[in-house]
Amino acid sequence: MSFQLDYFSLKGKNAIVTGARTGIGQAIAVGLAAVGAHVILIGHQDNMQDTQQQIEKLKGTYDTFFIDLSDVSSIRSKISPIIEKYQVDILVNNAGVIHRQPAAEHEFDQWQRVMDVNINAVFALSQLCGKSMIDNGGGKIINIASLLSFQGGINVPSYTASKHAVAGLTKALANEWASKNIQVNAIAPGYISTNNTEALRNDEQRSQSIIERIPAGRWGQGDDLVGAAVFLASKASDYVSGHTLVVDGGWMGR
Ligand code: NAP
């Protein structure tokens, strides 16, 4: 059968998006709803109104749950009822934290928090949803990686280690689950204007040097990630597996 536009449609699909309150996760959640998915918004702070209102405007549908993903040992008990209630077709592991502190002083409890949210929770959620996707005959997992899945960064050793791990886990899960019709891929955003990069944008020198290196000549916005997310969540990407798709205005090409 030849390709059809509705391969990009997510009508009838249930999609979990973690960290859906702000930034990239919010844009992806609203974007998936715009192409028909029922979105299960996972938040941390009890305040999802903005995302909910954006989805309502599109006449999309959602449910909301609040889970602290840094408490990895409690993820199973919090996520299992969601998986029992919904057939989860799409999991977007977006929630992430950054701690900026030079390696020599980097506090170990911060290292641990970054690892818990950015990689340990990603594995726990992927394992739980992946098992159910295997039983259901397939699914899509999209991990939000980073340019620091490829580069070392400055003063963010825990973040860099966690995001390299995200790229590695993406390939490892893809190798095991491609034959089960589960496509596991990642998106590596470039420099996107969100809370995560507020400190960088407030540092005039760093901000200027970053923009000078981006061929597109601007910081990215959350919406810049939505096309890649819809593609990787949809039938259009059924033969894409274990890939980390860079969406960075050209940064990595320099
Ligand atoms: P953001 O606005 O700070 O979003 C981070 C999200 O993670 C928030 O919605 C936050 O939820 C959630 N989160 C943090 N700690 C959590 C916890 N313990 N439990 C559950 N959720 C938690 O920043 P963002 O830039 O959109 O980040 C989204 C993802 O993109 C992250 O994985 C980040 O590493 C990645 N990324 C960002 C950039 C960039 O330039 N911005 C570049 C590459 C990769 P609450 O708000 O409810 O606390």
Layout of helices and strands:
Elements: E1 14-18, H1 23-34, E2 38-43, H2 49-57, E3 61-66, H3 75-85, E4 90-93, H4 108-136, E5 139-144, H5 157-177, E6 182-189, H6 198-202, H7 204-213, H8 226-233, E7 244-247
Parallel strand pairs: 1-2, 1-4, 2-3, 4-5, 5-6, 6-7
The structure holds NADP nicotinamide-adenine-dinucleotide phosphate.
The site of NADP nicotinamide-adenine-dinucleotide phosphate (NAP) has 27 residues, from α1.
Family: Belongs to the short-chain dehydrogenases/reductases (SDR) family.
Organism: Kurthia sibirica
GO molecular function, one term: 2-deoxy-D-gluconate 3-dehydrogenase activity
Explain how this protein is built.
There is one protein chain. The N and C termini lie far apart (39 Å). It contains eight helices and seven strands, in the order E-H-E-H-E-H-E-H-E-H-E-H-H-H-E. The protein has one domain (10-248): NAD(P)-binding Rossmann-like Domain (Rossmann fold, 3-Layer(aba) Sandwich), CATH 3.40.50. It has helices at residues 23-34, 49-57, 75-85, 108-136, 157-177, 198-202, 204-213, 226-233; strands at residues 14-18, 38-43, 61-66, 90-93, 139-144, 182-189, 244-247. Helix 1 (23-34) packs parallel to helix 2 (49-57), helix 3 packs parallel to helix 4 (108-136) and helix 4 runs parallel beside helix 5 (157-177). It has a seven-stranded parallel sheet, sandwiched between helices. Strand 5 (139-144), helix 5 and strand 6 form a beta-alpha-beta unit. The chain has 254 residues and is α/β, with parallel strands linked by helices. The chain binds NADP nicotinamide-adenine-dinucleotide phosphate. NADP nicotinamide-adenine-dinucleotide phosphate binds at residues 18-19, 21-25, 43-45, 68-70, 94-97, 117, 144, 146, 189, 191-192, 194-197.
